[in-house]
Amino acid sequence: MSVGYQFTRGIHLNGPVDVNSTDPQLMATNWADCLVVGLQNSAGASLCGPSPILMSTTGASTTTKNGCTFNPVAALQGALGFLSGCPGPLAALNGTPLSTPAVFNYFRPSGPNPSFAGPGAVFYPQLVGAAAAACFAAGFLGTAQKCYPTGFRAPSGAPIPVPFNSVDAQLSIGNSDYHGLTVNISKRFSRGFEFLSSYTWSHSIDDSTDLQSPLEPQDSRFPHKERANSVNDQRHRWVTSAVLQSGSPKSGDSFVKYLVGDFTLSPIIEIASGRPYNIITGTDTRLDLGASQDRPSVGGGVSSPFIPGVTFGQATVCLDNSGNQFQTLIPQVTPPEGCTGTLGRNRFNTTGFFTWDMRLSRRVPLGERVHLDLIADAFNLFNRTNIAAVNQLCDPSAGATCLAGQPTAAYDARQFQFALKLSW
After folding, report:
1. pLDDT on residue 233
2. How far apart are the first and last CA of the chain?
3. HEC profile of the chain
């Protein structure tokens, strides 16, 4: 018998992060302000669109539905304008910008999108100048004045056009911890019997090893918030194997000894805990133009029959670039727009794993030097359904129920294998 404990720490591990992520506060605020003033074109059609990503503005000065005046920057052909003359409770919006977010590259750190700056990005300096002037006064979005990102500049001070959207960099920022306790019991082969049993308790914690889906953190600005159980975490695993052999009959032995002699029975039994999996919404509430990493919040009106006792709601963690909570002028916009969920990464586990494999063989002598082995193998002898993957989607905005946790794939069902082996 042996007992062992292992602790392993990994640092500077691969961590996929979007280093040019959008600014969800500016995205959500831009859309909320558009909705609250009722920006419309000359035909009276709303320009706000169904989401912050699809919003647009107009190149003509116009009176909004709720009495503000939208004053476009003439040189930008409807990409940016400022509000004025807002009445009563909307007066706080006077002087604030409204823009088509695509022109400003969805407010990424790299600055405006040079694709909107004419052939060869000749008008890019004007676009950068407009971004620098598109500011919210101190107290509107936080304690300090906040303007649109202006991107990078050369040593001469000239703006550098950067035609990048998401930049998924592989940074050495990941960390992991592994704790493992093992207990082994073994019996060497004697008197026709051999036995080995091994139990492992382990706990694997990390923040960046999910090389499945998603490939990025829920919010690339704060990758350290992803620290949780690893996708490889398997808390318990017990494997037992044995070999049992009946003796070879000798000359003069009874018929029964000849009948049961030269058999070998070899079982392998494995029992293990399930592995963690992520729940994602499949919608882009974070407003980073990706829908494969947003998680819902815990608590709400949505449940899954495959995850009893837990309910899900829309995203409620709305953080600016400094990590402070923010809210838009219209509370119904943020949350959830620009927000992430409170549900942790790899919060749930699949069902446990059990399999029993067996080999039965018999040696038939065909002479002094020649013998034939008859072999029968059974894999997953009891035909247990072991879940390999589950549905990870639960969108709280799509209805009162979801199917998160529903099995979508299983390991192999029972299989048999037969063989003959001739030795001489």
Report:
1. 95
2. 38
3. CEEEEEEEEEEEEEEEEECCCCCHHHHHHHHHHHHHHCCECCCCCECCCCCHHHCCCCCCCEECCCCCEEEECHHHCCCEEEEECCCHHHHHHCCCEEECCCCCHHHCCCCCCHHHCCHHHCCHHHHHHHHHHCEECCCCCCCCCEECCCCEECCCCCEECCCCCCCEEEEEEEEEEEEEEEEEEEEEEECCEEEEEEEEEEEEEECCCCCCCCCCCCCCCCHHHHCEECCCCCCEEEEEEEEEECCCCCCCCCHHHHHHCCEEEEEEEEEECCCEECCECCCCCCCCCCCCCCCCEEEEEEEECCEEEEEEECCCECECCCCCECCCCCCCCCCCCCCECCCCCCCEECCCEEEEEEEEEEEEECCCCCEEEEEEEEECCCCCCCEEEECCECCHHHCCECCCCCEEEECCCCEEEEEEEEEC
The per-residue pLDDT for 211 is: 53
Distance of alpha carbon 302 from alpha carbon 315, whole angstroms? 13
191 versus 284: the higher-pLDDT residue is 284
- Residue 213: is its pLDDT beyond 70? no
Residue type, 402: C
In terms of pLDDT, which residue wins out, 8 or 76? 8
Residue 77 to residues 56, 73, 290, 363, 394: CA-CA distances in angstroms? 11, 7, 28, 88, 41
pLDDT of residue 290: 85
In this predicted structure, what is the pLDDT of residue 297? 97
Q: How confident is the model at residue 210 (pLDDT cuts 50, 70, 90)?
A: low
The Cα 146–Cα 138 span in angstroms is 7
